[in-house]
Design brief:
With about 475 residues, this protein is α+β, with helices and mostly antiparallel strands. Helices cover about 40% and strands about 15% of the residues. The protein is built from 18 helices and 14 strands. The strands form 4 sheets. Strands 6, 10, 11, 12 and 14 form a 5-stranded antiparallel beta sheet that branches. It has a 4-stranded antiparallel beta sheet with strand order 7-8-9-13, with no helix packed on it. Strands 4-3-5 form a 3-stranded mixed beta sheet. Helix 7 packs across helix 8. The radius of gyration is 33 Å and the shape is elongated. About 30% of the residues are buried.
């Protein structure tokens, strides 16, 4: 019985020299071999060219840009004319190969103008060899055309992108970066696209967050999408919530940030006020400055009382936003009365919030509370705590909480007003302390993880574990998340 052997890897000669290749191997941009092979075998070169154009443009770019190192001198005449945006852009062959789009257009133009287009490309590969140069013949220009429909692409931005074909050190101006990003995307100019993304990540601000996020989604740039989300998680309440730019935040982005565990807020009522401002600005597009909070309350309170704002046709599209809020975290009686007065939420929501608080009181303070940030003292269902953040040296910090007796401290009116007092000597609590600091444009995260502890009123058990961090970041945002489980 004959044994079966794998088929032999025979090689074929390409053209009339010693250039060899395997039969099933594509040329992958081997222009010299392809040209010689086509002349020797009579294969239609335009068909081979279409294969390269369709499948191997990245490899072709790598070969051409790697082989052609020279930059055109000032007296070198342009040999490619790009017709785009109503202008004629003069380019040089070696530089346009940095762009995948221009490479395709150039090869396509060669196949239409020359009977042997790859022979023209061969000249590029051997042009740098030292030899006596004959007299220069008149430059034969290749005309290529590119139609752009992206409204972000401007003349100045496109000119900057083309200039970057010649130099990696082209200055990018922040006011043009969106247009340059769009131009780089259309030109398939990867290195320039990455430079734009890096500049945009460092330039996120209240006035740029919306266009940068929209562009990141449009061009599927996940790194920039994530950067915009993280920036808004830290700045929604303390910064952009007090500016007219709050109006520009897309609803999809707002909902995603409201659901994030990293979202920073002074307390849940401040987050509610920010979202109310956002809705108000969506409905009053002519405003040029953010109003005082009483104006917002008066606006929503002006609707007929027969149904709440979110139950109206006008308000239903905003319902998913407020479903992301943790309204059970609003425990101050004045804040709860405020919510009832503006007639914004359905009555069933208000009843559920109040019922949960009543049940928590009846059960000895069992509740779920998260994303609460305090600088001094808090009182919740009869239990009082002091929140501490201590700086040790230049870059060392610690954060902790301590249970205090109602009679020992001069509590602020906002804490003790209408507040019950629990006589339980000990109370089981689950808690976590988180901190985030901004270091060189990136957020460092620290956490104690979820801990379970009985808090009493004596020194041995009245203090939480401390979250100790070392960071040079600024600012530092700290969040205390805690749960009173049934005990």
């Amino acid at each position: 019985m004959l044994s079966q052997h794998p088929s032999r890897l025979d090689r074929k000669i390409s053209g009339l020299n010693d250039r060899w290749r395997f039969p099933r191997e594509s040329y992958l941009g081997d222009l010299l071999g392809l040209s010689q092979y086509s002349r020797a075998t009579g294969v239609d070169i335009s068909d081979e060219l279409k294969i390269i154009d369709r499948l191997h443009i990245p490899q072709l770019q790598k070969i051409l840009t790697g082989s052609i190192k020279r930059k055109p001198s000032q007296d070198t005449l342009a040999d490619v004319t790009l017709d785009c945006l109503g202008f004629k852009w003069e380019l040089h062959q070696p530089q346009l190969f940095h762009s995948g789009t221009l490479t395709k257009l150039y090869i396509s133009a060669l196949s239409q103008k020359h009977t042997d287009p790859l022979k023209e490309l061969e000249k590029l590969l051997i042009a740098d060899l030292p030899k006596e140069q004959p007299k220069k013949s008149p430059v034969k220009k290749i005309l290529i055309s590119l139609k752009i429909n992206d409204p972000l692409v401007t003349k100045n931005a496109f000119a900057t992108a083309l200039k970057s074909l010649y130099s990696n050190e082209t200055i990018l101006h922040i006011e043009d970066v969106l247009g340059v990003l769009a131009s780089a995307h259309i030109l398939q100019f990867t290195s320039l696209f990455k430079r734009c993304v890096s500049l945009m990540k460092d330039g996120i601000s209240p006035c740029t967050i919306q266009p940068y996020y929209t562009a990141a989604c449009k061009y599927n740039e996940e790194l920039l999408v994530t950067a915009c989300e993280k920036w808004l998680e830290m700045n929604l309440v303390p910064l952009i919530g007090k500016q007219i730019h709050l109006r520009t935040i897309p609803q999809e982005l707002l909902q995603k940030v409201l659901k994030s565990q990293r979202l920073f807020t002074f307390n849940e009522f401040e987050l509610l006020k920010t979202t109310l401002y956002w809705v108000y600005l969506q409905l009053n597009l002519k405003l040029q400055a953010i109003p005082i909070y009483e104006t917002v309350l008066a606006f929503f309170g002006s609707f007929p009382k027969k149904c709440s704002f979110l139950e109206r046709e006008l308000g239903q599209k905003f319902l998913p936003v407020f479903q992301c809020l943790r309204l059970h975290g609003i425990t101050n009686s004045k804040d709860l009365e405020n919510i009832k007065h503006i007639n914004f939420f359905p009555e069933t929501w208000i009843v559920r919030i109040l019922a949960n608080h009543y049940h928590a009181l009846e059960s000895g303070g069992d509740m779920f509370q998260e994303n609460k940030i305090y600088s001094e003292m808090i009182g919740i269902y009869g239990f009082f705590f002091e929140i501490k953040g201590i700086k040790h040296g230049n870059c060392s910090y610690s954060f902790s909480m301590q249970r205090i007796k109602y009679s020992e401290m001069n509590l602020p009116a906002a804490v003790y007003e209408r507040s019950p007092v629990s006589l339980r000597p000990e109370r089981l609590m689950k808690y976590e302390i988180r901190a985030q600091s901004l270091v060189d444009g990136n957020w460092e995260e620290f956490s104690t993880n979820m801990l379970t502890q009985k808090f009493g009123l004596i020194k041995s058990n009245n203090k939480s574990h401390s979250l100790k961090i070392e960071t040079v970041g600024n600012p530092i945002f700290v969040t205390f998340v805690f749960i009173f489980p049934i005990s």
